């Protein structure tokens, strides 16, 4: 199973996100992450969805989303063809030596310590989805209390659109 990034331009009106998520639920597609944001046109929003599946799943998602009345455009984005970015916050419990080791990892991965106490340390990292995944796999060796990811947002590097 792979992760696929899908970018859709949709009409910015009430109920569109519910229709998109309902489509995924009815078809049994799992949403790994989802972000919605306005574009420079107040009538249009961009939905960026990461879906897990195979190429058949990707094809079905693209076809089904394109059928939605509110969908203006839907495309599959490859991470190397676009500027893809997300943010993760990780709260780690541990001793002083654990916190020192976390700080060292942060310097390697260009993550920031945003809060530290006697009991925990909170780390922030932003970057490409693949960098975030790598960082999380390494930092996962510590006692993670909580984490939160924003989801992927993406813009094609060379393509001009709305």
Separation, N- and C-terminal Cα atoms: 31 Å
Number of strands: 9
Shape: elongated
Unreliable stretches, pLDDT < 50, 5 or more residues?
none
- How many alpha or pi helices? 4
Taking the sheet with the most strands, its summary is: 5 strands, antiparallel
Summed over residues and divided by their number, the pLDDT gives a mean of: 92
Task: Map the helices and strands.
Elements: E1 2-11, H1 16-27, E2 30-38, E3 44-53, H2 55-67, E4 71-77, E5 82-93, H3 96-109, E6 112-116, E7 120-127, H4 129-139, E8 143-149, E9 153-156
Antiparallel strand pairs: 1-3, 1-4, 2-3, 5-7, 5-8, 5-9, 6-7
Question: Care to describe what's here?
Answer:
With 162 residues, this protein is an alpha+beta fold. Helices cover 31% and strands 44% of the residues. The protein is built from four helices and nine strands; from the N terminus they run E-H-E-E-H-E-E-H-E-E-H-E-E. The strands form two sheets. Strands 5, 6, 7, 8 and 9 form a five-stranded antiparallel sheet that branches. The protein has a four-stranded antiparallel sheet with strand order 2-3-1-4, with helices on one face. Strand 2 and strand 3 form a beta hairpin. The chain is elongated and about 55 Å long.
What's this entry about, in short?
The protein has 162 residues and is of the alpha+beta class.
Features:
162 residues; alpha+beta; 5-stranded antiparallel sheet; 4-stranded antiparallel sheet
